[in-house]
Structures are given as structure tokens and as C-alpha cells.
Amino acid sequence: MITGVHAVVFSPNAEKVRTFFADVLGMSSVDAGGGWPIFALPPAELAVHPADGSGHHELYLMCDDIYATLAELRSKGADVARDVSEERWGRLAAIRLPDGAELALYEPRHPSPLQP
Fold it and tell me: Could you tell me the residue range of the domain that residue 70 belongs to?
């Protein structure tokens, strides 16, 4: 039935963000036609949280060691927009995309449905 998740990042500087995903984040891609890259993502998980009022969606890139991941991304020229914060459910930080938007990084504390 469901075979995966297709997430979309909208940006006024799409080319710069695409280059960042390829060069800094090291994501491989395929050409979906007309030069539109579709990036491969690692396995994903999905949570549903209660919301006051209308719902919204958020995107987090997950990692096993947020400090090592941030160090590697900094070495590739990434700007850290938010340093690591300790949350009840894990560690959270954010990097800045070339268009100025933030992309969250998350080191979960909970068991993952992806791991046996």
C-alpha cells in the first residue's frame, strides 16, 4: 500500500537549496525530468501530534549523533542556525539553508520503529 514518503521543500532559491542538499548534505538524486532532482532520503518515521486549531507539518532530518553531524556539516560550510537543545524527547538543532530558512536536525531518544 504505502511505499514511502515524498516530502517537498519550497524555496525562493530552489537551485541553491538543491545544490546544498547534494553538496553539503550529500544526498543522492535522480532527474525526475527537466532537470528536477528528486533526492533520496534515509528511512523515515512519522509521528502525529495533537494541535490547537488547524494542523501543520514539520520536517526534521534525523541523526544518531547530533554533535558529530553538526561538526561534519560545519566542515562542509553549513551554518548552524540553532545550537543543540536538550529536549525531553531528544536533542534538537537547526542548520540554515541557502535561502535563509531553517532545517531542523533531530537526535531522538525514543526507540525507532526502523531498528529491529
Answer: 14-43+57-108
- CA dihedral 2→92→75→36, nearest 10 degrees, is 30
Residue 28 inside a domain? The answer is yes
pLDDT at 115 over 70: no
Residue 102 lies in a domain: yes
Q: Which residue has the higher pLDDT, 2 or 29?
A: 29
12-28 pLDDT per residue, tens: 999 999 999 999 999 99
Burial 55-91 (b: 16+ CB within 10 A, else e): eeeeebbbbeebeebbeebeeeebebbeeeeeeeeeb
CATH number at residue 63: 3.10.180.10
